[in-house]
Write a structure and sequence with these properties.
By secondary structure, the chain is mainly alpha-helical. Helices cover 65% and strands 0% of the residues. The longest helix is centred in the middle third of the chain and has 25 residues, at 52-76.
Length: 171
């Protein structure tokens, strides 16, 4: 019973909370190996920060991908979750544009972000939300979709949304 339980058909093993992770343990051997200690070894790569140019490029590309997903979802009458979903519901119910509604729905969260995630995260998020709101508002001037099957819109929009969010999350 408890930590000393022996599964049927398995070899005997036991959890001993008094036993330390000495150098004979696999995890300790890995952490204390010459490879782990040598930061010039190719297996040990330090985390690299992103330059300001890379951050701007990722925010622009990620926001464009997400904006395209929102345009496709809106054209097909689809929804997504989170604040974008709430903005879509308000858009469908009131006829007010998705972009301005998305910006307004996100306003209360900047205070939380500032306190929990810090200044840099909050400013990047504000920039991405403002840019996404602007792009979704201006998109109809640059792109017109004549025919769009909802299944294609769901898959294509989901891929664009996921890729855009990945760009944004990494920067």
């Amino acid at each position: 019973s408890g930590c000393n339980a022996r599964p049927t058909g398995a070899s005997s093993y036991r959890f001993d909370s008094n036993r330390s992770l000495g150098a004979d343990r696999p995890v300790a051997r890995l952490l204390h190996s010459p490879v782990a200690m040598d930061s010039s070894h190719p297996a040990v790569r330090p985390a690299l920060g992103h330059s300001r140019f890379e951050d701007v490029q990722a925010v622009l590309a990620g926001t464009l991908f997400v904006a395209m997903a929102m345009v496709v979802f809106g054209q097909a009458g689809l929804l997504t979750g989170g604040t974008a979903g709430a903005a879509f519901l308000l858009h469908y119910a009131t006829g007010v544009g998705f972009g301005p509604l998305f910006f307004v729905v996100n306003l209360p969260f900047y205070g939380f972000a500032w306190r929990r995630m810090g200044r840099e995260f909050t400013l990047k998020t504000f920039a991405a939300i403002a840019l996404l709101s602007l792009m979704t508002t201006l998109a109809p001037r640059f792109i017109a979709i004549q025919s769009l099957h909802p299944a294609f819109a769901a898959v294509f929009g989901g891929l664009m949304l996921g890729t855009g969010c990945l760009f944004l999350a990494r920067h």
